[in-house]
């Protein structure tokens, strides 16, 4: 039951971020609702497709579909009353990331897959919806930035696997993992928690001395 409720909350949170991200794109109601639903349902759809689950989760249980639809419509009409949409966006995104990652990790473990598969699919489920949202709304994907994003998802999924293996009867394992991801994301947003520079790939432009010679020649004449 807890897993089911967390999944529903994750659907609602990501649907809201999809609607907010479309706020400056002059989209109509149908387009905005569609973006919210794709954002909220996309990660789990990819997970079930990759794992060849017999029926995609929102097809098997249309309650997920209705929650995504209702949350998107509610956000469409309610977003204009939000004083700080960017803050709501980041908190809802962090909440959705945490919920989707942990719910997916637990579901994959329950399906009998190994821990590495569960962690991988948890991360993919957590970040995929946000990637789809950002691409469709022409935003730089959060997962590709310097700020902690995929790492909290990995740590939360890893923590859940450890708890599930060592204390499987504990009913709050998923809550602990969700809190870890959410807290790390909040710190990343408010405390500028970035990856160290030595972990970042920076493309450097090769120096071509022939261009310098050509420029100096053009300058003379």
Task: Please explain how this structure is put together.
Keywords: Cell membrane, Membrane, Transmembrane, Transmembrane helix. It is found in: Cell membrane. Its main location: membrane. This is Membrane protein. It comes from Marinomonas ushuaiensis DSM 15871. The protein is mainly alpha-helical. The protein has one domain. It has nine helices and no strands. The protein starts with a helix and ends with a helix.
- Proportion of beta-strand residues: under 5%
**Rounded mean pLDDT score:** 84
Provide the gyration radius in Å: 21 Å
- Give the N-to-C terminal Cα separation: 78 Å
Question: What would you call the structural class?
Answer: mainly alpha
Features:
221 residues, mainly alpha, 0% strand, disordered C terminus
How would you summarize what this structure contains?
It is found in: Cell membrane. The protein is mainly α and 221 residues long.
């Amino acid at each position: 039951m807890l897993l089911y409720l967390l999944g529903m909350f994750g659907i609602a949170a990501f649907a809201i971020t999809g609607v907010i991200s479309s706020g400056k794109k002059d989209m109509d109601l149908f387009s905005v609702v569609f973006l919210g639903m794709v954002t909220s349902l996309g990660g789990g759809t990819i997970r079930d497709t990759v794992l060849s689950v017999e029926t995609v989760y929102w097809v098997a249980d249309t309650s997920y579909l209705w929650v995504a639809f209702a949350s998107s419509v509610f956000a469409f009409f309610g977003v204009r009353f939000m004083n700080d949409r960017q803050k709501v966006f980041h908190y809802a995104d962090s909440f959705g990331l945490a919920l989707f990652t942990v719910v997916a990790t637990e579901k994959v473990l329950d399906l009998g897959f190994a821990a590495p598969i569960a962690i991988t699919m948890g991360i993919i489920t957590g970040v995929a919806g946000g990637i789809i949202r950002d691409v469709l709304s022409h935003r730089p994907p959060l997962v590709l930035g310097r700020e902690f994003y995929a790492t909290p998802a990995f740590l939360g999924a890893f923590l859940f696997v450890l708890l599930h293996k060592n204390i499987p009867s504990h009913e709050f394992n998923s809550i602990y993992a969700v809190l870890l991801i959410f807290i790390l994301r909040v710190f990343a947003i408010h405390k500028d928690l970035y990856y160290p520079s030595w972990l970042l790939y920076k493309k450097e432009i090769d120096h071509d001395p022939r261009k310098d010679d050509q420029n100096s020649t053009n300058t003379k004449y």
